[in-house]
């Protein structure tokens, strides 16, 4: 853990070097155009900030130089001095000296003396001629000066994507080599393979780390959005933002931008009530909207919460029946979570009137699709009259996912851990048949169970009614979870849990949405990655 | 309920220091703005109890921001942050409705004292 003093020092250094770079740039602009007001203002401001920061940080020498430079740039700005003649080299020396001093601080060296410079700057302030050192010597210094480059580089995300893909390939080959080495009896090969494993692991995590950005870089755009939307909707809303420091892959943040925008607009448009309505309900007139991020195990949770009217489960239930998504009888038996899940069905809108802000463009189904494409989860919880919270469960990084490997008909398959709830082994007598459907009681909840082999190979028609007596012996079942719906899949055998690199399916197989992609196992075997959302939809379509 | 504070300063270093001081003292820092535009947006969106406002900002001067905020929120307390040599601007700010001012570099004690007493000044609309 860094001490606060160290943290301040680091921030001071980074910012001071930025200031120095900007000062060098602006003073060169000023040399080309001495009347450049924008450059003058910036120089004044940068000197001002450096002065204050250096003084607070305990570097009075830097502060002294910056203070005088600020004064002179202020005088030039106010047309009391002009940027010409002997003023120019003195101010250039001033900027150079500031650079030297900052670098000396960074290197832990003693700061260079600035007495000559300070005397000349005082002369300029007092309207006197500066005393310049021998011109040729100064030129020599300039000519020999080393060019300093910033410690920071900007990288196009495209290049990082490419690196990430290469690492993905590398990991697959690495796993293959590791398996081969174990089969061989060469200790040297085994040791090298083990080393390759560690190094490539570190490489993979380093590249993942480089791609991480603060969630705050997206959150910070929201105060403006909230203000504009609230004004258009005539709502009074306070926005609270929390967890800006949480880090996530830059591309994931990019993909969820529109979703987050939609959820926030929805919360203001439909969630939070008009001030008068709120007051009638005994709530403060000002609505509260919270954007929060936190980490949970390997995932990042982003929550959009409002203290608005909440979701009326009964109206959603009615609407779902009206739209034929579920029969009236079945609807009555669904619990609240299952009913709220209808909100994510394509084209399902609860908006009574379409407002400019929230009634157009993407619906919750599109939000859901975006989150699904990342292998994430979208959840909603709500209390009528109290408010609604949407939770986005996102992977920290896109390339590598934790997965559960299992076997079915002697083939290996993988299911992303993000969608696995639990694994259970049950005897046939632990399963019940209700309405042609197998049900298992898992953690006090009745979960429908289906033989995965049947689900995948049954053709287009509905599944035949389940029969418990067909099951022989202990059944290995993976409970998957999608959109608050749990589903048990009977498989042949659990293999293991493993990090996998998912490669998208190539054409023409990419249209089979049951499989999210493929991965290569260390054995060289191709392993299909099951797409839980598609599998759940398939089950709902084919259930008896 | 914690008093909610918005920090406006173009230096990340200053913002970090102020934020730590205020958070440690039990205030809630609701936002940090680095320029005048952001300051106006965040002030409108977060409706803070108090704003610490740097007098020199990249796009507007602190004075313009002060006037902008005052039009919208007459009751928010505004503490101007200045450095030595800006007495003229500070005086003008006080005439334009700033509640108080602090001179940089500031000590933690001084910041808390001035922020604390600014929050106590009358004219607050809060019940």
Q: CATH class of the largest domain in chain A, anyone?
A: Alpha Beta
Based on secondary structure, the structural category of chain A is alpha+beta
Coarse structural class of chain B: alpha/beta
CATH architecture of the largest domain in chain A: 2-Layer Sandwich
Largest β-sheet summary of chain A = 6 strands, mixed
InterPro entries (chain A): Bact_Chemotaxis_CheA, CheA-like_dim, CheA-like_homodim_sf, CheW-like_dom_sf, CheW-lke_dom, HATPase_C_sf, HATPase_dom, His_kinase_dom
Protein name (chain A): Chemotaxis protein CheA
Keywords (chain A): ATP-binding, Chemotaxis, Kinase, Nucleotide-binding, Phosphoprotein, Transferase, Two-component regulatory system
EC number (chain A): 2.7.13.3
Relevant terms:
heterodimer; A: 544 residues; alpha+beta; 4 domains; 5-stranded mixed beta sheet; B: 127 residues; alpha/beta; 5-stranded parallel beta sheet; 22% strand; globular
Strands, helices and their partners?
The complex is a heterodimer of chains A (about 550) and B (about 130).
Chain A: H1 4-32, H2 37-57, H3 60-77, H4 87-107, H5 115-125, H6 135-144, H7 157-183, H8 187-210, E1 212-214, H9 216-219, H10 222-233, E2 237-242, E3 247-249, H11 250-271, H12 275-280, E4 287-296, E5 299-306, H13 313-322, H14 328-333, H15 336-340, H16 364-373, E6 377-383, E7 387-395, E8 400-408, E9 411-416, E10 420-426, E11 431-434, E12 437-442, E13 445-451, H17 452-457, E14 475-482, E15 485-491, E16 493-501, E17 515-520, E18 526-530, H18 532-542
Parallel strand pairs in A: 2-4, 9-18, 13-15
Antiparallel strand pairs in A: 1-3, 4-5, 5-7, 6-7, 8-9, 8-16, 10-14, 11-12, 12-13, 14-15, 17-18
Chain B: E1 4-8, H1 12-24, E2 28-33, H2 36-46, E3 50-54, H3 62-72, E4 77-83, H4 87-95, E5 100-104, H5 108-120
Parallel strand pairs in B: 1-2, 1-3, 3-4, 4-5
Helix pairs in contact in B: 2-3
């Amino acid at each position: 853990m860094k001490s606060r003093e160290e943290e301040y020092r680091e921030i001071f250094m980074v910012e001071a070097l930025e200031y120095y770079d900007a000062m060098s740039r602006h003073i060169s602009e000023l040399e080309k155009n001495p009347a450049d007001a924008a450059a003058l203002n910036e120089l004044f401001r940068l000197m001002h900030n450096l002065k204050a920061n250096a003084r607070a940080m305990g570097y009075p020498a830097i502060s002294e130089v910056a203070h005088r430079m600020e004064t002179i740039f202020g005088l030039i700005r106010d047309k009391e001095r002009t940027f010409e003649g002997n003023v120019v080299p003195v101010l250039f020396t001033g900027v150079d000296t500031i650079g030297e001093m900052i670098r000396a601080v960074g290197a832990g060296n003693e700061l260079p003396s600035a007495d000559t410079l300070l005397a000349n700057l005082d002369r300029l302030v007092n309207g006197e001629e500066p005393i310049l050192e021998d011109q040729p010597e100064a030129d020599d210094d300039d000519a020999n000066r080393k060019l300093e480059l910033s410690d920071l580089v900007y990288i196009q995300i495209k290049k990082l994507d490419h690196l990430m893909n290469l690492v993905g390939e590398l990991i697959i080959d690495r796993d293959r080599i590791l398996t081969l080495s174990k089969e061989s009896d060469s200790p040297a090969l085994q040791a090298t393979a083990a080393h390759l494993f560690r190094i490539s692991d570190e490489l993979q995590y380093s590249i993942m780390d480089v791609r991480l950005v603060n969630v705050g870089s997206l959150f910070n755009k929201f105060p403006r959005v909230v203000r504009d939307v609230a004004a258009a909707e005539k709502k009074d809303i306070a926005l609270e933002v929390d967890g800006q420091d949480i880090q996530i892959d830059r591309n994931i943040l990019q993909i969820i931008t529109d979703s987050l925008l939609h959820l926030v607009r929805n919360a203001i448009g439909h969630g939070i009530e008009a001030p008068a309505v709120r007051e009638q309900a005994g709530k403060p007139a000002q609505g509260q909207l919270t954007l929060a991020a936190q980490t949970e195990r390997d995932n990042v949770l982003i929550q959009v919460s409002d203290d608005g009217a909440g979701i009326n489960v009964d109206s959603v239930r009615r609407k779902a029946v009206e739209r034929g998504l579920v029969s009236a009888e079945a609807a009555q038996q669904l619990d609240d979570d299952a009913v709220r899940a209808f909100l994510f069905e394509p084209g399902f809108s609860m908006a009574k009137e379409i407002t400019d802000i929230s009634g157009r463009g993407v619906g919750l189904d599109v939000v859901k699709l975006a989150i699904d494409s990342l292998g994430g989860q979208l959840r909603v919880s709500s209390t009528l009259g109290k408010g609604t919270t949407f939770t986005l469960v996102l992977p920290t990084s896109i390339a590598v996912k934790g997965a559960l490997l299992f076997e079915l008909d002697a083939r290996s398959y993988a299911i992303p851990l993000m969608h696995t709830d639990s694994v259970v082994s049950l005897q046939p007598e632990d399963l019940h048949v209700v309405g042609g459907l197998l049900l298992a009681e898992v953690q006090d909840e009745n979960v429908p169970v289906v033989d995965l082999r049947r689900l995948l190979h049954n053709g287009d028609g509905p599944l035949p009614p389940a029969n418990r007596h067909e099951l022989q012996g202990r059944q290995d079942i993976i409970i998957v979870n999608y959109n608050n719906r749990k589903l048990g899949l009977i498989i042949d055998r659990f293999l293991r849990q493993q990090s996998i690199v998912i490669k998208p399916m190539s054409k023409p197989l990419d249209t089979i949405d049951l499989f999210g992609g493929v991965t290569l196992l260390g054995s060289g075997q191709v392993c299909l990655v099951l797409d839980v959302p598609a599998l759940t939809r398939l089950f709902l379509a084919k259930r008896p | 309920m914690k008093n909610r504070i918005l920090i406006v300063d173009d230096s990340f270093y200053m913002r970090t220091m102020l934020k730590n001081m205020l958070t440690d003292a039990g205030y809630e820092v609701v936002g940090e703005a680095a320029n005048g535009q952001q300051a106006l947006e965040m002030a409108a969106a977060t409706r803070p109890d108090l704003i610490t406002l740097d007098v020199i900002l990249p796009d507007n001067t602190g004075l313009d921001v002060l006037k902008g905020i005052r039009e919208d929120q007459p009751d928010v307390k505004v503490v101007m942050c200045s450095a030595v040599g800006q007495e003229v601007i500070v005086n003008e700010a006080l005439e334009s409705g700033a509640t108080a001012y602090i001179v940089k570099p500031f000590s933690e004690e001084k910041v808390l004292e001035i922020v604390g007493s600014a929050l106590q000044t009358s004219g607050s609309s809060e019940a």
